[in-house]
Amino acid sequence: MIRVLIVDDQALFRGGIRMLLESQPDMTCVGEAADGAQAVRLAEEQQPDVILMDVRMPVLDGIAATERIVRARPESRVVVLTTFDLDEAAARAIRAGASGFILKDAEPELVLAAVRTVHAGNEVVAASATRELFKAFGSQRRRIPAEFAALTEREREIFGLAARGLSNTEIARSEFVSEATVKTHVSRVLAKLGLRDRVQLVVFAYEHGLVGDQR
Hints:
This protein is about 50% helix and about 15% strand. It contains eleven helices and five strands, in the order βαβαβαβαβααααααα.
Protein backbone atom coordinates (compact mmCIF):
# COMPACT_ATOMS: atom_id res chain seq x y z
CA MET A 1 0.00 0.00 0.00
CA ILE A 2 1.41 3.39 -1.03
CA ARG A 3 1.04 5.88 1.82
CA VAL A 4 0.45 9.40 0.50
CA LEU A 5 0.48 12.78 2.26
CA ILE A 6 -1.33 15.68 0.54
CA VAL A 7 0.01 19.20 1.10
CA ASP A 8 -1.94 22.17 -0.26
CA ASP A 9 -3.51 25.29 1.24
CA GLN A 10 -6.80 24.72 -0.59
CA ALA A 11 -9.08 22.34 1.31
CA LEU A 12 -11.23 21.63 -1.73
CA PHE A 13 -8.22 20.60 -3.79
CA ARG A 14 -6.93 18.36 -0.99
CA GLY A 15 -10.34 16.71 -0.74
CA GLY A 16 -10.44 15.96 -4.44
CA ILE A 17 -6.97 14.42 -4.42
CA ARG A 18 -7.86 12.36 -1.34
CA MET A 19 -10.94 10.94 -3.06
CA LEU A 20 -8.83 10.08 -6.11
CA LEU A 21 -6.19 8.30 -4.04
CA GLU A 22 -8.67 6.43 -1.88
CA SER A 23 -10.37 5.08 -5.02
CA GLN A 24 -7.22 3.08 -5.77
CA PRO A 25 -6.65 -0.36 -4.21
CA ASP A 26 -2.91 0.26 -3.80
CA MET A 27 -3.03 3.77 -2.25
CA THR A 28 -4.12 5.39 0.98
CA CYS A 29 -4.05 9.00 2.19
CA VAL A 30 -2.31 9.19 5.57
CA GLY A 31 -2.93 12.89 6.12
CA GLU A 32 -3.49 16.40 4.80
CA ALA A 33 -1.49 19.55 5.50
CA ALA A 34 -2.46 23.15 4.72
CA ASP A 35 1.08 24.56 4.87
CA GLY A 36 4.69 23.48 4.81
CA ALA A 37 5.14 23.49 8.58
CA GLN A 38 2.25 21.06 9.01
CA ALA A 39 3.71 18.95 6.21
CA VAL A 40 7.05 18.62 7.99
CA ARG A 41 5.33 17.56 11.20
CA LEU A 42 2.99 15.08 9.52
CA ALA A 43 5.80 13.60 7.44
CA GLU A 44 7.63 12.79 10.66
CA GLU A 45 4.51 11.40 12.36
CA GLN A 46 2.96 9.45 9.47
CA GLN A 47 6.10 8.50 7.50
CA PRO A 48 4.46 8.65 4.06
CA ASP A 49 5.96 6.99 1.00
CA VAL A 50 4.95 9.83 -1.32
CA ILE A 51 4.13 13.48 -0.62
CA LEU A 52 2.14 15.61 -3.07
CA MET A 53 3.50 19.08 -2.28
CA ASP A 54 2.18 22.47 -3.37
CA VAL A 55 4.97 25.02 -3.84
CA ARG A 56 3.13 28.18 -2.76
CA MET A 57 1.70 28.07 0.76
CA PRO A 58 1.58 30.23 3.90
CA VAL A 59 3.80 29.76 6.99
CA LEU A 60 6.36 27.61 5.15
CA ASP A 61 6.45 27.16 1.39
CA GLY A 62 6.79 23.88 -0.44
CA ILE A 63 10.43 24.43 -1.33
CA ALA A 64 11.58 24.80 2.28
CA ALA A 65 9.27 22.00 3.41
CA THR A 66 10.64 19.67 0.74
CA GLU A 67 14.21 20.38 1.78
CA ARG A 68 13.47 19.68 5.45
CA ILE A 69 11.52 16.51 4.78
CA VAL A 70 14.03 15.03 2.34
CA ARG A 71 16.90 15.79 4.71
CA ALA A 72 15.14 14.16 7.68
CA ARG A 73 13.46 11.33 5.78
CA PRO A 74 15.05 10.71 2.36
CA GLU A 75 12.88 7.63 1.77
CA SER A 76 9.81 9.88 1.44
CA ARG A 77 9.47 10.94 -2.18
CA VAL A 78 8.10 14.40 -2.98
CA VAL A 79 6.11 15.29 -6.09
CA VAL A 80 5.64 19.02 -6.51
CA LEU A 81 2.22 20.41 -7.48
CA THR A 82 2.25 23.64 -9.47
CA THR A 83 -0.22 25.76 -11.41
CA PHE A 84 2.27 26.95 -14.03
CA ASP A 85 4.24 24.78 -16.44
CA LEU A 86 7.07 27.35 -16.60
CA ASP A 87 7.57 27.70 -12.88
CA GLU A 88 10.99 28.47 -11.40
CA ALA A 89 9.70 27.51 -7.95
CA ALA A 90 9.16 23.94 -9.16
CA ALA A 91 12.76 23.73 -10.35
CA ARG A 92 13.95 25.07 -7.00
CA ALA A 93 11.89 22.41 -5.22
CA ILE A 94 13.49 19.74 -7.39
CA ARG A 95 16.92 21.05 -6.49
CA ALA A 96 15.81 20.84 -2.85
CA GLY A 97 15.15 17.13 -3.29
CA ALA A 98 11.75 16.65 -4.97
CA SER A 99 11.45 13.78 -7.43
CA GLY A 100 9.63 15.76 -10.09
CA PHE A 101 6.53 17.84 -10.59
CA ILE A 102 3.07 17.70 -12.11
CA LEU A 103 0.57 20.40 -12.95
CA LYS A 104 -2.45 20.83 -10.69
CA ASP A 105 -4.78 20.50 -13.65
CA ALA A 106 -3.21 17.23 -14.78
CA GLU A 107 -5.50 14.35 -15.65
CA PRO A 108 -6.26 12.03 -12.69
CA GLU A 109 -4.45 9.18 -14.44
CA LEU A 110 -1.27 11.26 -14.60
CA VAL A 111 -1.44 12.08 -10.89
CA LEU A 112 -1.80 8.40 -10.02
CA ALA A 113 0.96 7.45 -12.44
CA ALA A 114 3.28 10.04 -10.86
CA VAL A 115 2.64 8.63 -7.38
CA ARG A 116 3.36 5.08 -8.53
CA THR A 117 6.40 6.16 -10.52
CA VAL A 118 8.19 7.91 -7.67
CA HIS A 119 7.17 5.20 -5.20
CA ALA A 120 8.92 2.70 -7.49
CA GLY A 121 12.12 4.73 -7.12
CA ASN A 122 11.97 6.61 -10.41
CA GLU A 123 11.51 10.28 -11.19
CA VAL A 124 8.87 12.24 -13.06
CA VAL A 125 11.03 13.80 -15.77
CA ALA A 126 9.52 12.91 -19.13
CA ALA A 127 6.64 15.39 -19.40
CA SER A 128 7.13 18.02 -22.09
CA ALA A 129 6.11 20.68 -19.58
CA THR A 130 8.99 19.60 -17.37
CA ARG A 131 11.46 19.95 -20.21
CA GLU A 132 10.08 23.38 -21.07
CA LEU A 133 10.44 24.42 -17.44
CA PHE A 134 14.07 23.39 -17.33
CA LYS A 135 14.79 25.13 -20.62
CA ALA A 136 13.28 28.36 -19.32
CA PHE A 137 15.00 28.08 -15.97
CA GLY A 138 18.26 27.20 -17.67
CA SER A 139 18.22 30.32 -19.81
CA GLN A 140 20.20 32.01 -17.03
CA ARG A 141 23.23 29.82 -17.43
CA ARG A 142 25.91 29.44 -14.82
CA ARG A 143 29.55 28.59 -15.30
CA ILE A 144 30.03 24.86 -15.79
CA PRO A 145 31.52 23.47 -12.56
CA ALA A 146 34.84 21.65 -12.46
CA GLU A 147 33.07 18.44 -11.45
CA PHE A 148 31.59 18.13 -14.94
CA ALA A 149 35.04 18.36 -16.51
CA ALA A 150 36.02 15.33 -14.41
CA LEU A 151 33.52 13.11 -16.23
CA THR A 152 34.94 10.71 -18.78
CA GLU A 153 33.88 11.01 -22.41
CA ARG A 154 31.61 8.00 -22.01
CA GLU A 155 30.05 9.42 -18.86
CA ARG A 156 29.33 12.68 -20.67
CA GLU A 157 27.56 10.77 -23.43
CA ILE A 158 25.39 8.95 -20.89
CA PHE A 159 24.82 12.24 -19.05
CA GLY A 160 23.53 13.87 -22.24
CA LEU A 161 21.11 11.06 -22.99
CA ALA A 162 19.81 10.93 -19.41
CA ALA A 163 19.38 14.71 -19.42
CA ARG A 164 17.11 14.38 -22.45
CA GLY A 165 14.83 12.13 -20.39
CA LEU A 166 15.81 8.78 -21.92
CA SER A 167 15.31 5.74 -19.71
CA ASN A 168 18.07 3.23 -18.95
CA THR A 169 16.50 0.86 -21.49
CA GLU A 170 16.46 3.51 -24.20
CA ILE A 171 20.05 4.53 -23.46
CA ALA A 172 21.19 0.91 -23.53
CA ARG A 173 19.51 0.39 -26.90
CA SER A 174 20.99 3.61 -28.30
CA GLU A 175 24.52 2.91 -27.09
CA PHE A 176 24.51 -0.87 -27.66
CA VAL A 177 25.35 -1.67 -24.05
CA SER A 178 23.54 -3.49 -21.24
CA GLU A 179 21.15 -1.76 -18.86
CA ALA A 180 23.46 -2.75 -16.00
CA THR A 181 26.28 -0.82 -17.68
CA VAL A 182 24.04 2.22 -18.10
CA LYS A 183 23.02 2.09 -14.43
CA THR A 184 26.69 1.97 -13.43
CA HIS A 185 27.54 4.98 -15.59
CA VAL A 186 24.54 6.98 -14.32
CA SER A 187 25.46 6.20 -10.70
CA ARG A 188 29.03 7.38 -11.27
CA VAL A 189 27.84 10.56 -12.96
CA LEU A 190 25.47 11.37 -10.08
CA ALA A 191 28.22 10.72 -7.54
CA LYS A 192 30.79 12.88 -9.34
CA LEU A 193 28.36 15.77 -9.77
CA GLY A 194 26.96 15.50 -6.24
CA LEU A 195 23.42 14.96 -7.51
CA ARG A 196 20.72 12.93 -5.79
CA ASP A 197 18.88 11.46 -8.79
CA ARG A 198 18.09 11.79 -12.48
CA VAL A 199 15.68 14.67 -11.94
CA GLN A 200 18.48 16.75 -10.44
CA LEU A 201 20.68 15.66 -13.35
CA VAL A 202 18.14 17.14 -15.78
CA VAL A 203 17.97 20.40 -13.81
CA PHE A 204 21.78 20.57 -13.72
CA ALA A 205 21.99 20.02 -17.48
CA TYR A 206 19.52 22.76 -18.39
CA GLU A 207 20.84 25.20 -15.80
CA HIS A 208 24.30 24.97 -17.33
CA GLY A 209 23.26 24.81 -20.98
CA LEU A 210 24.52 21.25 -21.42
CA VAL A 211 21.52 20.02 -23.42
CA GLY A 212 20.45 21.31 -26.82
CA ASP A 213 16.88 22.16 -27.77
CA GLN A 214 14.90 18.91 -27.56
CA ARG A 215 11.63 18.82 -29.41
